[in-house]
């Protein structure tokens, strides 16, 4: 027999046993961003290729080698979005959402990068992103960082490190870049092939090199923060003061440069050592020049995106549990007549108790009990021939050592309402 077709390499199904963890993460995010005044925006998965070239930067790894780019039937060059910031700002500009007003937005959805797949790095992955527009001062930088810190707390994730840096303005970076290139040219013989190429295209990215042979050279390189003008220094100092006052710990990492070119001033990453090489679970920063670059007016912007697979992997590594999603019962329908009565009874319960999880079963008695057990249900509502004649239903406790009870079908809704309110807040391990 030939093997059935498989998912595309680097792209994964989220199986039913995993979806509760996704739903819990999404629910926590939804509640949190709402509390901070962020509104959801839903964006297309496909954008024009130009958008990403202009925003992420033509000389970045993402644009150079990772985009899923194709010509559509009109020969327009389109790209599956590799990230959400560019599309979000495109929409903000297109619809005038930040015209004389502040906008706080969030989005979620799949992103696509043709990277080498490995643990924590996929070709389709899920980001949740948060972006704010129209606020040039450091208070919003702090707000976004505090929001992300609160999310970790809500998710029960401890031990992440907040890495913080400032990249200054484009003008400051030009001055710095000259000094950096001059330094690197002096040591060009020590650079690997990739860094030699980057020396021409994107020298700042050399600072991000993972090649241990370059570590010493990079450690001794000029530091961008030494080239910042007073305004950028003050912005960074004020942000640090705010984080200190709010009690959020951070590590200043002057080598943090990020893999996208649009950043100005603040950049940050939340990292963990629980996930091996792919340790960044969430990252972002300010991008004040991007609106202008995309043909709009000057609109300051800042945001971050978390990688949902990585956040869930950290939760799993920490042994986090998910709350059970409420009382779950199965209706065991023993016989053809019971199938009719069972469906009617189930429909009545769905009407009376919309929050109840209720599933009807068919098959042999043995098979129905096996199905009920596997489903995780805590109650079996049994309708056999005796119950049909007597107008009753027998309730069997599947997870508790309690005697079964028989009640009339009229009493069932009240019985289940009572069971729902007593439903122990049980948890399941990830
Ligand atoms: P990014 O650092 O490219 O930034 O991605 C953000 C997060 O997405 C990463 O920290 C990581 O958790 C996750 N991620 C990235 N690539 C992969 C992958 N191949 N597999 C699994 N997870 C991945 C951005 O995308 C910016 N748009 C963030 C931002 C928003 N900056 C400002 N606003």
Please give a structural write-up.
The protein has helices at residues 19-35, 49-56, 61-66, 85-94, 138-154, 170-186, 193-201, 215-219, 230-246, 290-293, 308-317, 336-352, 365-375, 385-390, 412-421, and strands at 39-40, 46-48, 68-71, 77-80, 103-112, 124-133, 161-166, 251-252, 266-271, 280-286, 301-307, 321-323, 328-333, 357-361, 379-383, 392-397, 405-408, 427-429. With 430 residues, the chain is of the alpha+beta class. A hairpin with a 7-residue loop joins strand 16 and strand 17. The model is unreliable at 424-430 (pLDDT under 50). The structure holds histidyl-adenosine monophosphate.
Poorly predicted runs are: 424-430
Main β-sheet description: 8 strands, mixed
- Hetero ligands: histidyl-adenosine monophosphate
Radius of gyration: 28 Å
How helix-rich are the residues, as a percent range?
Answer: 25-40%
């Amino acid at each position: 027999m030939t093997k059935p077709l498989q998912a595309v390499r680097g792209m994964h199904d989220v199986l039913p046993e995993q979806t509760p963890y996704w739903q819990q993460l999404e629910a926590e995010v939804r509640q949190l961003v709402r509390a901070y005044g962020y509104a959801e925006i839903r964006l297309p998965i496909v954008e024009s290729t130009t958008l990403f070239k202009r925003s992420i930067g033509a000389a970045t790894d993402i644009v150079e080698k990772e985009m899923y780019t194709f010509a559509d039937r009109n020969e327009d060059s389109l790209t599956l979005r590799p990230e959400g910031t560019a599309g979000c700002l495109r929409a903000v500009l297109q619809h005038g959402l930040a015209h004389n007003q502040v906008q706080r937005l969030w989005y979620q959805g799949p992103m696509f990068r043709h990277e080498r797949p490995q643990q924590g790095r996929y070709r389709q992955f899920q980001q949740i992103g948060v972006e704010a527009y129209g606020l040039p001062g450091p208070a919003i930088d702090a707000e976004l960082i505090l929001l992300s810190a609160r999310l970790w707390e809500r998710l029960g994730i401890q031990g992440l490190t907040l890495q913080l840096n400032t990249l200054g303005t484009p003008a400051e970076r030009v001055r710095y870049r000259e000094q950096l290139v001059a330094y690197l040219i002096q040591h060009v013989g020590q650079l690997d092939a990739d860094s030699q190429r980057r020396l021409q295209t994107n020298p700042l990215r050399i600072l991000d090199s993972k090649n241990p042979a370059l570590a010493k050279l990079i450690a001794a390189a000029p530091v961008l923060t030494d080239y910042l003008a007073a305004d950028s220094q003050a912005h960074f100092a004020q942000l640090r003061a705010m984080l200190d006052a709010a009690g959020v710990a951070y590590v200043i990492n002057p080598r943090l440069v990020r893999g996208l070119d649009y950043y100005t001033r603040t950049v940050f990453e939340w990292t963990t050592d629980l996930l091996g090489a792919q340790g960044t679970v969430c990252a972002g920063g300010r991008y004040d020049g991007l609106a202008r670059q995309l043909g709009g007016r000057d609109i300051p912007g800042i945001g971050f995106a978390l990688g949902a697979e990585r956040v869930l992997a950290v939760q799993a590594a920490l042994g986090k549990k998910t709350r059970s999603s409420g009382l779950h019962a199965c209706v065991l329908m023993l016989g053809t007549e019971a199938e009719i009565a069972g469906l009617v009874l189930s429909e009545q319960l769905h009407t009376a108790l919309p929050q109840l999880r209720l599933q009807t079963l068919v098959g042999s008695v043995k098979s129905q009990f096996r199905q009920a057990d596997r489903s995780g249900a805590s109650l079996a509502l049994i309708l056999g021939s005796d119950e049909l004649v007597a107008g009753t239903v027998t309730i069997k406790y599947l997870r508790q050592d309690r005697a079964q009870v028989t009640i009339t079908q009229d009493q069932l809704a009240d019985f289940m309402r009572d069971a729902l309110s007593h439903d122990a807040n049980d948890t399941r391990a990830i």
